[in-house]
Amino acid sequence: MVQLGLVGLGRMGFNMRERLRAAGHEVVGYDQNPEVSDVGSVRELVSALAAPRMIWVMVPAGEPTRQTIAELADLLTDGDLVIDGGNSKFTDDKRHAELLAAKGIGFLDAGVSGGVWGKENGYGLMVGGAQTDVERAMPIFDALRPEGPRAEGFAHAGSVGAGHYAKMVHNGIEYGLMQAYAEGFELLEAAKVVEDVPAVIKAWQRGTVVRSWLLELLVRALDEDPELDDLEGYVEDSGEGRWTLEEAINNAVPAPVISAALFARFASRQQDSAAMRAVAALRNQFGGHAVKKVAE
């Protein structure tokens, strides 16, 4: 049994606490929502743990994570360990590690995949940091990862920053996969020859080269709403796709699929596109092609 402090009990953090407790570990959780929190503050959480402490941070990336780690740096002591399991940008990890190392506190960055299904299925984990810190936290990682061979659900990706870098690329790939399924769905919907689109996509789940968990989730969505017309085609991005493209540019790696998928998300947020208005105007100017006026 390992004792763990967990800061952040949102959609993933809450389920992670439940999975760890089911595996026999003691988890003390803190969240700003008192209805799910075990303690009233981060300070109380630190006080509730026996030294040397291990604390997993599962809060939104960016300033919330930076503030949390800065607070922990003031409260923790030599020999403690902090794990950032959020979707932080990998460039933040070195700064966090240096801040904590000044007080003798270890740091690991953990890319976590599994979403709201992780409690049942386990989480894919990509970890960066020192081998000794990874070994110390391994009982926690083993409880969180899917059942089966460790290498199929867990990777010590490298030094500090490697875990979040790996998760960044993972999410960039995810963008491309989702966009491909979405475009295929739209084409099937548009084709008059295909009469049962959900049945076709459901059939792809077995024996085909495009079967995947994402495809299973699309089938689940179609079971609930066969034409997906209860939804608006508005898609946000949480940053990892942009960071992936930045790194593709920095390393001169062609990434046309991921870039197209990211730009498609940008397009989904436009009720009216200035660029496409310009295209329509140009087609009208050089070729006399018909245009559609706003009043129409």
UniProtKB/TrEMBL annotation:
GO terms for biological process: D-gluconate metabolic process; pentose-phosphate shunt. SMART domains: 6PGD (SM01350). It comes from the Bacteria. One of its GO terms (molecular function) is NADP binding. Residues 163-296 form the 6-phosphogluconate dehydrogenase C-terminal domain. The keyword Oxidoreductase applies. Keywords: Gluconate utilization, Oxidoreductase. Belongs to the 6-phosphogluconate dehydrogenase family. NCBIfam families: gnd_rel, PRK09599.1. PANTHER family: 6-PHOSPHOGLUCONATE DEHYDROGENASE. This is 6-phosphogluconate dehydrogenase.
